[in-house]
Design a protein that fits this description.
- With 409 residues, the protein is α+β, with helices and mostly antiparallel strands.
- Helix content is 50%, strand content 18%.
- It has helices spanning 8-11, 14-28, 50-56, 60-73, 120-130, 134-142, 149-193, 195-211, 217-248, 261-271, 273-278, 297-313, 346-351, 372-383; strands at residues 31-35, 82-85, 92-100, 103-113, 257-260, 282-286, 292-295, 320-327, 332-339, 387-393, 397-405.
- The protein has a five-stranded mixed beta sheet. A four-stranded antiparallel beta sheet has the order 1-4-3-2, with helices on both faces. A two-stranded antiparallel ribbon has the order 5-7.
- It starts with 7 loop residues before the first helix and ends with a strand.
C-alpha cells in the first residue's frame, strides 16, 4: 500500500483518539499520550502519575531527561514497539510508532510503570540529582503502578498491533472514499465534457447535411473550422481520459532514457501550432540547445504539452509564454512554463492537481477546462519522483514549475 502524505488526524477525530487513549490507559494502568512524529502532542496526557508529572517533570534536569526518553521511544519502528527504561527515574516506557504505507504518521507513548528491577536506593539517589524532596519523591514513587517486565512488554506489543491495525483500516477506508470520489468525478467528466463536443459536431454536421446546397464557400469553410475545433477538443479530452485511466489501473509503463530537451520542445510546439497561431501566442524558450534530460520522453511530452496548452488557454490573444530549463538542487532539473495570462486566485491554486476539486474555468476564448490535464501532469511528474507546483496572481499570469531528479544511477 503506497501512502499519500497523511496525518493521523486525517484518519481520526482528536476526540476519538482521546477516548481510545483514555480507555486503554485506564484498562492497562499505564500513562499514555499520542504525538506527531516530531513529538508534538496530538492528545492530552492520560493517567500520568503524580511522580512523573508533578515531581520529575517539574525539575529542569528531570524534564530534559523525560523529553530525551520520549524522543527515543517516539522513533519509527516497523518491527514492533520500542521498550526501554526512562532516562529520568528508570520507570519503564514504550513507544508504538503508527505507520501507513511505511510513512510514520504518529507515535503512541505509554509507560510510567515500575517493575522488579527498580529499588528505593536508586530512586532516592535520583531525587538528589534533580533536587527534589526525598520523602515526597519516594512516597510518590510507591504510588506508581507496578507491572512485571513481561506483562508490560505484552501490553506494549498489543498496543503496537492495535494502533497500526486500526490506522491501516482507517487509511484504507479513506483511500476507498477518495477513489469513489475520483470515480464519480471521472464519470461526471465523461458524461458532461464528452457530450459538449459531440453535440457540437452533431449540430454542425446536421446543418451541413441539410443546408450545404444553400451555403456559400466561406460559410462551408467556417463550419469546417468549427468542426475541426470541436474534433480537436474531443481528441484532447479522450487522450487525457485514456492516460488517466491507464495511470489509475497501473498500466502506464515508465521507460526513462536520455533525450534532447530541444527535440521534445519542438515536437510539442508542432503539436500545438494550430492553437498557438489562432491565438497569436508568442512562444519564448530559455534553455541550452544541447541540454539532455533523463526521463520518460512520452510522459514528459504529455506534461509539457498539457502545461503549454493550459497557458495558451488562459492567455489572451497576442500573449507570451516562456518555457525555461535549468539545473536545480540535488542533481535535479527545473522546468518552468510562464504565461502572461489571467492568473489564478489562492482558492483556485489550492484546488489544482485534485480531481475532487475542479475549477471548471473557461479559457479566454471560451475554451473548456476540466483540470484533468494538470492531474495527469502531477501523476507523470511523481512517476519520476519529482514535484510540480505553481505560482500565480490573479491578472498577473502563472508560472508552473517541475523539478525532476537526474541521478539515474
Amino acid at each position: 500500500m503506497k501512502s499519500r502524505e497523511i496525518e493521523l488526524v486525517d484518519l481520526f477525530e482528536v476526540e476519538e483518539l482521546q477516548k481510545l487513549q483514555d480507555v486503554f490507559s485506564e484498562a492497562h494502568r499505564v500513562s499514555s499520550i499520542i504525538t506527531t512524529p516530531e513529538g508534538e502532542p496530538i492528545t492530552k496526557p492520560s493517567n500520568f502519575t503524580n511522580f512523573c508529572f508533578n515531581l520529575v517533570r517539574s525539575s529542569p534536569i528531570g524534564c530534559a531527561n523525560c523529553m530525551k526518553s520520549d524522543t527515543a521511544i517516539g522513533q519509527q519502528s516497523l518491527g514492533g514497539p520500542i521498550i526501554q527504561p526512562c532516562a529520568s527515574a528508570g520507570l519503564w516506557d514504550a513507544g508504538a510508532s503508527i505507520s501507513v504505507g511505511g510513512q510514520h504518521i504518529a507515535s503512541w507513548l505509554i509507560g510510567q510503570v515500575r517493575n522488579e528491577d527498580l529499588n528505593q536506593e536508586r530512586v532516592l539517589k535520583y531525587a538528589d540529582e534533580i533536587g527534589v524532596d526525598k520523602k515526597e519523591f519516594l512516597d510518590a514513587f510507591m504510588e506508581v503502578p507496578y507491572m512485571s517486565y513481561d506483562q508490560f512488554t505484552k501490553v506494549a506489543e498489543m498496543l503496537y498491533y492495535f494502533a497500526n491495525q486500526i490506522s491501516d483500516k482507517a487509511y484504507a477506508k479513506s483511500e476507498l472514499e477518495k477513489a469513489m470520489i475520483e470515480k464519480d468525478k471521472f464519470l461526471s467528466i465523461v458524461a458532461h465534457d464528452l457530450r459538449s463536443p459531440f453535440n457540437s459536431i452533431l449540430g454542425y454536421t446536421e446543418i451541413m447535411a441539410d443546408d450545404i446546397d444553400n451555403m456559400s464557400l466561406p460559410e462551408i469553410k467556417a463550419m469546417a473550422n468549427l468542426l475541426k475545433k470541436s474534433s480537436r477538443n474531443l481528441f484532447v479530452l479522450l487522450e487525457n481520459l485514456l492516460q488517466w485511466s491507464l495511470i489509475k489501473r497501473g498500466k502506464s509503463a515508465f521507460n526513462p532514457q536520455w533525450f534532447k530537451f530541444n527535440e521534445l520542445f519542438e515536437e510539442t510546439i508542432e503539436l500545438l501550432n494550430e492553437i498557438i497561431t489562432r491565438k497569436d501566442i508568442e512562444i519564448l524558450s530559455s534553455f541550452p540547445e544541447i541540454l539532455s534530460v533523463y526521463g520518460d520522453k512520452g510522459m514528459l511530452e504529455s506534461v509539457l504539452r498539457n502545461l503549454i496548452s493550459n497557458s495558451i488557454k488562459f492567455s489572451s490573444k497576442g500573449g507570451k509564454i516562456q518555457v525555461g530549463v535549468k539545473k536545480g538542487e540535488n542533481e535535479s532539473l527545473l522546468i518552468w512554463v510562464r504565461d502572461s495570462g489571467i492568473g489564478m486566485n489562492e482558492n483556485i491554486v489550492s484546488s489544482l492537481f485534485q480531481l475532487s476539486n475542479q475549477t471548471n474555468r473557461t479559457g479566454t476564448d471560451g475554451e473548456r477546462s476540466n483540470g484533468l490535464g494538470l492531474i495527469i501532469c502531477k501523476e507523470f511528474v511523481e512517476k519520476h519522483e519529482g514535484k510540480i507546483w505553481v505560482e500565480s496572481k490573479e491578472g498577473k499570469g502563472s508560472i508552473f514549475y517541475i523539478s525532476i531528479p537526474q541521478n539515474n544511477t
